[in-house]
Amino acid sequence: MFTKRKKWAFVMCVCSTVLALSACTGNGNGGNTTSGTSSVTDVSSAEQLPELTINVLSQLTSYAGPQEGWFAKVVKDKFNIKLNIQSSTGEVVASRMASGDLGDLVVWGNNSKEYTDAIKGGLLLDWNKDGLLERFGNHMKENAGQAIEANRKQFGDGKHVYGIGHSVGSGEGSSESNKLTFGPSIRWDLYEKLGSPKITKMEDYLPLLKQMQELEPKSDSGRKTYGFSLWSEWDGNSMNLGNIGAYYGYINGDGFNPSDMILTSVTEQKYQGLIDDSSYYMKGLAFYYKANQMGLLDPDSVTQKFGDVSSKLKDGQFFFTPFTWMDDTYNTPNHLSAGKGLMPVPFSEEKAVTFGYTPYGGERVWSIGAKAKEPARIMMFLDWLYSPEGIMTVNNGPKGLAWDIKDGKAYVTDYGWGAFPSNETPVPEEYGGGSFNSGMSKINNTTISSMMINPETGEPYNREMWSSSLGHNPNQVELSWRDAMGVSTQKEYYTNNNMVAITKQTFTGEAPIQLPTDIQQKQNEVGKVIKEYSWKMVIAKNDTEFNKLKQQMMEKAKGLGYDEVVAWQMEQTKKTVWAHNP
Amino acid sequence: MPSEFVKIISPAKKSKRLRKSVKHSSYRLFFMALPFLILAFLFSYLPLYGWIYAFYDYSPALGISQSPYVGFKWFTTMVSNEMQRAEVIRVLRNTFGMNILGLMTSVFPVIFALFLVEIKSTWYKKMVQILTTLPNFISWVLVYAFVFMLFSTQSGFVNQVLMNVGWISEPINYLASDSYIWIKMTLLGLWKGLGWGAILYIAAIAGIDQELYEAAKVDGAGRFRLMRHVTVPGLIPTFFVLLLLSIAGFISAGFEQFYVFQNAINANDIEVLDLYVYNIGIANSSFSYSTAVSILKSLVSVVLLFIANRLSKMIRGETII
Predict the structure, then answer these.
(1) Considering only alpha carbons, which residue of chain A is nearest residue B286?
(2) Does residue A513 contact residue A576 with C-beta atoms inside 8 Å?
(3) Helices marked H in A294-447 — which ranges?
(4) How many helices (H) and strands (E) does chain B have?
(5) Which of A97, A223, A524 sits opposite B60 (nearest CB)?
(6) What is the predicted ipTM?
(7) B243 vs chain A: nearest CA distance in angstroms?
(8) pLDDT per residue as tens digits for the range A511-522
(9) Which of A112, A377, B108, B167 makes the best surface tag, with the fewest CB within 10 Å?
């Protein structure tokens, strides 16, 4: 937390700015600002600013309700703001748009159609209005100036600013931390027991997982174990987990335009149609089909949700995770102290996709609703999220609890080692109570890349990269992994062995192209067919059925306009992404 | 000329008074009906304005005024090629298939009611009726949760029992299966609606003249003969009215049930028209296309209603509209 003096200075700052703003908005912004200021004039602490509840519409969260715990406490103490979070899948945003009021703070999952439509429809606030950005956006201008400029050029005709992208940063190489996003990770203890056989290609995991299943047929709670447990909840226009392109340097789409029906290489100008015979998507389906034939696929995969999978993982009911961040669910202090844990084990042909830096900001956009009450205070809160203090807090919790500063450098406290990354460790009442996990920011969007350097400590915001953390005692599983791989982190291993494919940023100065409605309708129809048949293929009884389903999928998809959609999407990719990244 | 006309037809005071009272009472009737006319207008005719969305490329942020007008584009899209037609036909087939099965099972509540009233023990009768009516008040979401508990592979009751008995060695995923999905859905619907559906029939049975029973008993009819010759004919009119009503509404029936039970494996056979509109349109923001499809739905409903009405006239000599 901050000192009394700082607090005082902050309050004065808030008072004067709110006053200044109300003076220049005049009658235009109506009663809200005026009523806000009259009570602000003689306050002496942040708590005496009128309490403000802001509605946050986030496309990136499945949480709905008031923000709780330590993050809520920090925001309340600092701004006297309460966050009321509204999760939103497609329909919610559409109905809110039709009503003409999107809420106060709006967080977009991507910067394509809905975002641009909202701008066109006048539903988002122009940050230049009343000099909002000029007055309150100092941290943003300083730490993400290019991102603001990019937004101005792409979405505001060079004049208006309607939002700012996420994960802003600059530098070479991967912007991810020690652990990359893509694994795969498998049960390290079992892998070692099986003599750590060499894995060359994706398919080599299957016999290995089979042996693991024989070695450990029952989970902690006595349930049958499997190699994989999948979920369909995240499926868009294809089976989300079926795409194994991310292990071969291919991403779904082109990273810029809406392009669900193609896979593009992030390093070369190459592409595949999603359901081309040799595409990585089809390879993925064949892979999971084989897994199912070998009895390695959890039969609940089609019907269960991500939450079910998480609790199965915690119980140790399967041995393979596609994403390394899932490892933490299994790697609890209990499992680790018993010498059990999931660790990244690559196959030697692997080229894992990892995201490079982008000074222009990523596609997840922060914006303010046109009808927001007290936009100045929302702007201040947003600006704080782009400040070193805000980034440190969102990433690592309130200062003094899980981390602190000693001799100008940040370090993780003992409490922190037990609470990170997102454990159910109880939080003391003075910091907001609840558990560490439940108190994390539910908005679920980032601002500045956590790999950027914090000017106050001279080290990255990411706690894994602090000099004090690097020397911290790793657990037994981690140690044996480091020993066997000859490196200290996954990133190091992948980079040393030339196994990463780093995405390039695309900035054309224009907004991403939108799908015309007829192409979109075709894509919806095709996507539905692909999704449905993909799952059927994965659980097909035999090769004949698998091939028959594959044939049917191709026929139906093509009949519904698949080729047309792919051709249109490829044209856009060539015109924009490839033209700008020769 | 109007004035002459008035002179000719209104010579007598008596008829004038009569006309006045008729006029008066018809106004009264009109005003009594007015609130319901307004309600019908608000809830049944005003929403038809929404059909306009089918003729635009509607985007919620821009509103109808700024969205481009596209004419009949979405209607032609629906039938634009063979596969697209096949999709529409598939969802129509599912809609009809499951609803016809539903109609066929609508005799079960009748049979259930017939036998229920024959039970002499009052407390037992009441208990059966309460237990069978309760499921009607459970939402489909809860029904799904319950069915999932019964049939899931890892912890499902049915799989556990079958495995313990030794009939199967691997758990079967009943929910992720497309076999007999229509029948499964129909049975679930029947379980949920049986007791509720029987209520009207029980009321109808109570309304049958007791003298008919006594007369039949005097003539020597036993219990089953009473049912066959007195109760069943007494129920037929009620049954037909309910049947016709459900035919008229059947194309809109059961979105919720199919929505919670759908998954990638059974989607092909479970996707009814309403669910299709949701999956293609609402979930993916193709609002205009889904409006066009739902107009098709209204047309099919109207056609069905007229067919049912015609059938009713042929069979019973009575129409409902």
Answers:
(1) A521
(2) yes
(3) 306-314, 327-330, 333-337, 375-385, 388-396, 414-419
(4) 17, 0
(5) A97
(6) 0.78
(7) 35
(8) 888 888 889 889
(9) B167
